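Predict both folds.
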Amino acid sequence: MIRSVFAGVCRTPFVTTSRATTYKVPALVHRFYSDQATPEAELAQPAPSAKSAEAKQDAEAAPAISAQDVEKLKKTITEKDAKLRELKDAYLRSLADAENIRMRAKTEVENTKAFAIQKFAKDLLDTVDILELAIKHVPQEHLADKVANKSLVDLYEGVDMTKSNLLRTLERHGVESFDPMDQPYDPNTSHALYQAPMPGKTPGHVFAVEKRGYSIKGRMLRPAQVGVVLDPSGN
């Protein structure tokens, strides 16, 4: 079907003459439309993509994967997963070992600081023992008469104050004394010098303390030297 359409009328400038005014009428312009495709329209259609063609050829040329190949791939993946778990476990163990080493090093440093005076404190214990021995051997009846025995009383008080001040100094540095009198004998904290039957005393208990025991930061510095009540039955 062909349709004729007026494209429009274009006015042209008129020319004035002496005889008359004339107009130039433009010719009709015809435009034809057709429902049939022209060769140009066919050429305008997009051509198949070269990449799509190559992909299709590759897909057709690719060999099919057999069931045996699939099993091999599954086996390889399983082995890789097992190796990955093994490496992860080794990594976590390494982290734990490093943390343990760090904690041990920290503990050793703290213990070194805490027990740095251990040897020095142990040497001072002999001085404390001498002061206690001096105080222990002063007769109490002589101390009762402060007028007649003023010099002895003053000396006793001075020695006792020296001992007390020395013990307080040791305590400030973590050294503590203990007296196991009338307590069950403990070989971990006391050293039995002798045993003797003591009427009215419980067998296996401490009835005499020759030297007090000392510990530093919970660690035994020197065990107490004691006498233990002997069981008459020999048990």
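Second protein follows, with its predicted structure tokens after the sequence.
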Amino acid sequence: MTTSRAVLAAREALASIDLSSYDAEQSKLMDERCILVDEQDNAIGAMDKKTCHLMENINKGLLHRAFSAFVFRPSDGKLLLQQRATEKITFPDMWTNTCCSHPLDDFAEEKVEKEHLGVRVAASRKLEHELGIPQSQTPVDQFQYLTRIHYLAPSDGVWGEHEVDYIVFFTGDVTVNPNVNEIRDHKYVSKEELQAMFNDPANSFTPWFKLIARDFLFGWWDELFKRKAADGKVFAKSLLPLVDDRVVKM
């Protein structure tokens, strides 16, 4: 039986870089433990975020689990975007979806794979940490999982991403109070406004957001409007029939 590159990389992972020149709060977060997976998204262990995001290890195949959350306003279907803070170690100052992070090995509930519970719990936790959205406003059972993508993207010569990324939608009226160490800016956009942002060379976007937008986002967004409730509001759970539980290689 052939051992996958991700499994081999997990055995050989290195974390030898000094973080003292980076933002102290962001450096501390690098101690969190991500869930390592193989190419079929089977959990194979855990490793600190620093190790997981070093290109030295990514180039050997090290792969971890992540999520990308998309929060839409029910009344007009606009999507909440964030611009990542300058302090971020990976992909600073780039526009992206509402929240992108990781379920952690540090929390037992975030390792639960049944019905994608772990990533939904992690999404609620990180929406509060990054955007200050109270967890009471993002009940875990109201996140709609849609699919998983496997992608690799360098950030610079040192850092990058190599993830199996779970895509989840949420619709709700939320209170945003951004953590300035995480987020430089945020705004709600329509589909047309987002397309205009993509066409403006002054804007830069995270690679996973560009991939999701290219292949999935706009189609799902159209479906949200097609499936409006009787009160005219969009509802993430209406997309349940569109779920594709494959790992889609990008």
